[in-house]
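for the recovery benchmark. tokens below, seq after
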């Protein structure tokens, strides 16, 4: 079992969209996938139709041995979710003293090939738990002016975690998201990011595509909502790249 954290300290860069749709395509490709919703906003949970969950990840952090009881199936074969509930917002206080809580939880998770974690938009205790527990990180990056600075800051954080809490942590890759190829800025940012980070940057670029933003309100991943859209094609390709890279870690 490999655990991939979808992490970026910025909000609105496509973490949740990437976590949901990547998880869906990895499951469609035959992997047994668990999506763990570590963001108290619960967007991954509601985006997969589990808005009504009253218990989930928060409870499982307290009693890892019972994690299967709080794990929910979805309409997608092979894709389960450990949902976020409003209680998770309060977990930050408890987890501040306990960076290994998620690591202990994952030790009790059985029966999956891949665990994907949707992280919240901060570097608070919930995200630190993700960084401590993950084998590798996928960093979604929106192609905008400050993207490189944000990414440099993220890489410094990764190095700090590698030097302490989680020496085996790797960066699986950086995925450009919400890409609008009609603008010069987006193309310039892509060029700069590829110059600086080389092969770390996935070849698959996720375009800005309205279907990707509509799918969550229908509680479906993009492969079920609009399989012929440009967004679907891009996440399918990204999932293939992710699988190739995961096999090497
Ligand atoms: P994060 O989890 O990093 O905060 P989200 O995945 O929730 O980011 O994305 C922020 C917003 O942008 C959401 O409304 C989402 O539907 C939308 N969005 C994300 N990716 C795309 C895309 N490729 N094309 C169009 N809209 C997108
Ligand atoms: Mg999110």
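predicted aa per position
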């Amino acid at each position: 079992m490999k655990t991939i954290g979808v992490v970026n300290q910025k909000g609105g860069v496509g973490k949740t969209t990437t976590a949901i749709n990547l998880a869906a395509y990895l499951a469609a490709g035959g992997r047994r996938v668990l999506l763990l919703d570590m963001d108290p906003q619960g967007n991954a949970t509601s985006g997969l139709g589990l808005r009504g969950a009253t218990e989930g990840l928060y409870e499982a952090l307290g009693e890892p041995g019972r994690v299967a009881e709080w794990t929910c199936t979805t309409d997608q074969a092979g894709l389960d979710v450990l949902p976020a509930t409003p209680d998770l917002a309060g977990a930050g206080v408890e987890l501040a003293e306990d960076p290994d809580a998620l690591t202990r939880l994952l030790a009790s998770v059985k029966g999956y090939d891949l665990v994907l974690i949707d992280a919240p938009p901060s570097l608070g205790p919930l995200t630190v738990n993700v960084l401590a527990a993950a084998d590798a990180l996928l960093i979604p990056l929106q192609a905008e002016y400050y993207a490189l600075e944000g990414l440099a800051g993220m890489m410094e954080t990764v190095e700090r975690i590698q030097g302490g809490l989680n020496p085996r942590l790797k960066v699986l890759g950086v995925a450009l998201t919400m890409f609008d190829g009609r603008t010069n800025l987006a193309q310039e940012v892509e060029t700069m990011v590829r110059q600086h980070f080389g092969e770390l940057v996935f070849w698959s670029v996720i375009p800005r595509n309205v279907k990707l933003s509509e799918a969550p309100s229908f509680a479906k991943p993009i492969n079920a909502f609009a399989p012929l859209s440009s967004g679907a094609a891009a996440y399918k390709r990204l999932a293939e790249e992710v699988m190739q890279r995961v096999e090497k870690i």
